[in-house]
Amino acid sequence: MTTRHTVAPKGQGGRGAYRTIGEAIRAASPGDLVVIAPGTWTENLVLDRAVVLTAEHGRGSVVIAAPPGEAPTVTVDGPDCALHNITVWGSDAGLPAVSVSPGAGLVLEECSVEGGRVQVKGPEDEEGGTTAVVLRRCRLEGARLAGLHLAGGVRARLEDTAVTGVDGTGVVLSGTASLDAVRLRLERTTGSGMRLRGRSRLRLTDSVLAGSGRAGLLLEDATEATAGESRIETPGAAGVHLTGSARAELTDCRIRGAAASGLVVQETARLSAAGCSVADAGANGLLVTGSAEAELADCRIDRSTFSAVHLAGTAVGRLADCRVRGGSEHGVHATGEARIELTDCGITDVAMTGVSVLERAVATLTGCRVAGTAAGIGIGSPAGSTVADTTVTGTTEIGVQVAKGAAVSLAGIRISGAGAAGLVVDEGAQATVTGGRVEDCAGSGAVVWTGARPEVTGLHIDRPGKNGVFLAEGAGGTFTSLDVTRAGFPALHVAKGADPVFRHCRIRDCAEALGTDEGAEPVLEDCTADGTPLTFGTPAAAANGKPGAALSSPSAARAADGSDEPEEENLEDLLGELHELVGLDRVKQDVGSLVKLMQTVRRREEAGLPAPPLSRHLVFAGNPGTGKTTVARLYGRLLKALGLLRRGHLIEVDRTALVGEYVGHTGPKTTAAFTRALGGVLFIDEAYSLAPAFAGNDFGTEAVATLVKLMEDHRDDVVVIAAGYPGDMHRFIGSNPGLASRFGRTLLFEDYEPAELVSIVEFQAGQHRYELTPTARTELFSLFETMPRGEGFGNGRSARQIFQEMTERQAQRVAELTAPTAEQLISLEAHDLPHPAAP
Questions:
Q1: 754-767 and 774-786 are packed helices; what angle lies between their axes, rounded to 10 degrees?
Q2: Which listed site, 96, 250, 442, 632, has its alpha carbon 20 to 30 Å from 220?
Q3: DSSP label at 10?
Q4: For the whole prediction, is pTM greater than 0.70?
């Protein structure tokens, strides 16, 4: 039979009332009820038997406070204890206010715990039993380190409970603890919202984790969690972060506004998510690294700051019926040896490539849709990816690109409305194309570069803005049952040395059927143009595409790279961009003088006056890292703004891109590089290597001779900039009489001063949201002052390398802090500087 014990101040409660709660507990038998009158009771309580403490007048009327300097306020040593409608105040926010011992049991109902955590310890091993705790409609507030800590063999349940204002982690599970949380509201923690360690388990339902300083939900070691119909809002790091061998299953969850990635899966962890959404992540929507795995079904990832989905290492990602929308980088980005499988997924409106596959990663796409991206699908891995029954529409650049040395199988793919070429197969790439359509592309339908030999069967190309198929020098492959209709340029363009085989191909309603350069070797078998047999070398073929030099047709050159004309740029804005560069005062003055001279030339031409003799080709002399490539790129854009170049783009090459390995190889190789630069700038780095001091029979001299002739033939459609060390460039210009007459001006790029190098580091820091402390800035200046400027000194490159090393050192330092502030996360301090003997 339950006995009621009353606790009241002197003069209240009637005869037999206890004056302290402790007295009533000691007098109670297991199962008794202790009823407490309103007021603040300053006591340390030990519940060593099954008693129930309740407030006589409901929630908020009774406060139990620990005496100053003593903790915990309530210690539970017995089973089946309970507190109803009681507020517990801790004496120290960093210590337990309520402590439950191994094997004990506690129910908190309609209670508040303030200024200290609830700490529950279970037995270390399973034979010791469990500790059972239930919190219903409770509020935990103002603790430090943790709001609720469950350790060891604990079984706990939270219902309609709030954990808030914790200077640390909201809820911590460790050991073999298990928590079932329903309608938990966890907010305003400086650390993670919930953290699982050891072999702990969590089931989270209809809950909200908001405003954590670090991860919303952090799983480490061999922990497991399931979460359903829950929200994670504005965490200070990842929304859900899995490391070790952790496992998590999310259903109908929403993750919003993570400062870092929305979902992070690392090491050997496994994540499964269904019906979830990730929005406005500060980094990736989903990041999977190491050998981790993630499987998502019917999920959405919106507006990621980095790539929406990023896989690295040997990670595996499987996405089915998922949607990616918006984002500043790629939709899906796979690197390393990662594997990504996309089935019935949609990717729209990302700023870069819809699906990007690099290094030795492998992608399998089935029934996917990519729309409104910069590039559609980019395959840069030789490991062999597969794309089937997939649609790419409305890209601003290339629809599908198979990069140099990459390999892919395309089956039933549809590419529509690409802003450049529909399909590009780069140098040495391997591509098998079966069926599919390419339609309404602004560039060529398909572009095949040197050394590529794709196998194409049953592809239909309709209404390309340029060629149906463009084959560059030395390209090849087999094209079977190819249909090309309504092409704006020759349906098939075959450059010098290209030897494709066309079988059973049909060309209809095209401007021309076949265009070939001298030395082209196409094979045509059972091909027709508007119903008429098409053969190479016959009058009909000549009428449809007279052989000629590729360089004589700028439009053909543009068709080859599949790109549109660049947007118009304002001359004043470009000059402003030039003057914002660190240092380079003499170069800026020289370029400004050139611009004024060319403006005058342009005006004389517009007035019908003869233009004075002017060579736009330049020599850039300077040590590495002094900004030569940056200025060259700006120079091209300036000439485009002046109307003196069609495109103003930059093609950067060196000796390896111009010089062949055997007789007869160098001329075509140099010509191909020059062709890509038509309408823009050809930037030859380390140009002096084309004229070595002891040349002998070096093929570099042939490259120089070829360049001289091409510069003469296309003097109004290209600018050549030769760059290298000052002393060596003098030898290069003197190696061929034609060079001296064409390179009439040399711009000298001087080494950066220490203050300028500091400015470069500060610029890099600003771009990546770091700040140098005044002490770091001063010591960085001293470092640059004493840095040896020998052969290994890289000027701006050295400054950028030092910035990178500083961020790496800062990351290691900040990782050791328990709860770093926002200022600590962005500050680069003197400790982060490399040793002076580094670069």
A1: 130
A2: 96
A3: T
A4: no
Give the Cβ contact number of residue 134 at 10 Å.
18
Residue 98 identity (one-letter amino acid): V
Report DSSP letters for 212-271, one per residue. ESS-SEEE-TT-EEEEES-EEES-SS-SEEE-TT-EEEEES-EEE--SS-SEEE-TT-EE
Q: Is the pLDDT of residue 11 over 60?
A: yes
Tokens 């507006």 belong to 303
In eight-state DSSP terms, residue 474 is T
- pLDDT surpasses 70 at 570: yes
Query: 111 — alpha (psi -120 to 50), left (phi > 0) or beta?
Result: beta
In the block, tokens 């027709």 appear at 528
Give residue 444's identity as a one-letter amino acid code: S
Q: Which two tokens stand for residue 197?
A: 């360690």
Average pLDDT of span 724-739? 80
SS3 101: coil
Q: Is the pLDDT of residue 549 over 70?
A: no
How many Å apart are CA 131 and CA 411, to the nearest integer?
Answer: 59
Angle between helical axes of 585-606 and 628-641 (0-180°, round to 10) = 20
Query: Are 209 and 193 spatial neighbours (Cβ–Cβ below 8 Å)?
Result: yes
* Strand ranges inside 66-184, DSSP E: 74-76, 81-84, 86-89, 96-100, 105-109, 112-114, 117-121, 131-136, 139-141, 144-151, 154-159, 162-174, 178-182
Task: Kindly give the pairing relationship between strand 532-534 and strand 512-516.
Answer: unpaired
Phi/psi-derived region of residue 255, left when phi > 0, alpha when psi is between -120 and 50, beta in every other case: beta
Give whole-number Cα distances, 50 to 53, 59, 65, 138, in Å: 10, 21, 21, 20
Helix 754-767 × helix 796-815 angle, to 10°: 50
Question: What HEC string does 508-577 produce?
Answer: ECCCEEEEECCCCCCEEECEEECCEEECCCCHHHHHHCCCCCHHHCHHHHHHHHCCCCCCCCCHHHHHHH
Cα distances (Å, whole numbers) of residue 441 to 103, 479, 700, 832? 72, 20, 39, 50
CB of 583 within 8 A of CB of 756? yes
816 Cβ contact partners less than 8 Å away, ≥ 6 residues apart = none
Residue 542 backbone class (left: φ over 0; alpha: ψ -120 to 50; beta: rest): alpha
